[in-house]
Write a structure and sequence with these properties.
Two copies of one chain form a homodimer. Chain A is mostly helical. Chain A has nine helices and no strands. Chain B binds a DNA duplex through helix 1 and helix 3.
DNA sequence: ACAATAATTGAACAGTGTTTAAATGTTGAC
DNA sequence: GTCAACATTTAAACACTGTTCAATTATTGT
């Protein structure tokens, strides 16, 4: 049987591992962090971690879930407030999405990194789906308000996702490139996308 | 001294390594391919490869350069032909760029993947820059023809790059996601982007 | 033929994520 | 308190990685 005290201790160690890993991943990058480094920081044998996480990628998956939870919260707050032009709400949502990605490069990159570099976890993926659901809602408002050129909500939503995703990945993936000022590029991309779906009057 | 015959043999082995690696990387993914597997396929000791390549990533870098050379060729053919609407040429260029990325996921990912997952090689990066130069040219034509809402060539070019890049990365990074039909999403993104920069008449 | 040079080898090295048998802690029933 | 049952931790080992290196083999110029 699992006593309350024991359960709490387990949970505490789990959190310590997560805290150590969160910090290390962010500074050194996932692939440069070893299980032994994490274990050392928590002052525990490497094997111990495997009683709290299935494997290394499960640690990152847990961290990503947290992070995407935060994104979801911010997103939902934006969507719930249904005042103002839906297209402008869409723009704000996109802006927030991009900024979030740039603020959490390691987490963002690893949920979207190409297959073999990083194992995929369904849990993280479904967390991302939840965020996308909010985007869908926002788009639906625009379509229903008759503000859009096209009618297919799914098509528009996925297109916008691809667009914002592209800005984030470009900044993260090519830090050495001579980009124009960051916020200007972001606004430009958002502007083009919004104008691209807006119905001409 | 290095005899002609010897130089040819060296070159041949180098090409054999590249051929083996090209195939293995494409099917199994960079991180699942070991130097020993490549060596075994070329029927050579693992150490031998290091007389022809600095390290594992140098092999991929060489392959990427080849690949991006092909992209450049296709791109240039498109840009050189200056007939027809420049905006439509831009659309065709974007379509080709996305298709190319999806046809060479491993290579595309290397040049754009986030730092720690894959090592960066300046040679590959500058190859990518050359492609971007073509995009810039295409955009300039549109601006000069007075077809665009905005005037800043660099701003438009970078925005369009981010957009097309986003489509590629989304497909590559989230293969399990219930996307709408691939070509439909691609056309939709391109359409939104083109309409987003087009001057209203 | 014989040094000099270049290419190849297979073993070794330092590191990785993960597994496992043994040791240690903790718990609940007697 | 005792003791068996269970949970947790540990250090050592495993199988694997990319890479290095002395020794071996092959090729070259004289």
């Amino acid at each position: 049987m699992l006593t309350k005290r024991r359960e709490r201790l387990n949970h505490e160690l789990r959190e310590e591992v997560l805290a150590a890993a969160r910090e290390l991943f962010a500074t050194d990058g996932y692939h440069n962090v070893t299980m032994r480094k994490i274990a050392e920081r928590v002052r525990v044998a490497p094997g111990t971690i495997y009683h709290h996480f299935d494997d290394k990628s499960a640690i990152l998956a847990a961290i990503c879930m947290e992070t995407f939870g935060k994104l979801d919260k911010r997103m939902e707050a934006l969507v719930t407030d249904r005042s103002g032009n839906p297209l402008e709400r869409l723009r704000r949502g996109g802006r927030m999405y991009v900024q979030f990605g740039l603020e959490h490069p390691q987490h963002y990159a690893l949920t979207f990194a190409i297959g073999d570099a990083m194992p995929k976890h369904d849990s993280v993926m479904s967390a991302g789906l939840k965020t996308f659901e909010n985007l869908r809602l926002c788009v639906r408002d625009c379509v229903d308000a008759g503000l859009t050129r096209m009618q297919d909500v799914e098509e528009i939503a996925q297109s916008l996702w691809a667009t914002t995703h592209g800005v984030v990945m470009l900044f993260l993936g090519k830090p050495g490139f001579p980009f124009i000022e960051q916020s200007r590029l972001i606004e430009s991309v958002l502007d083009i996308a919004i104008e691209g779906i807006r119905k001409k009057t």
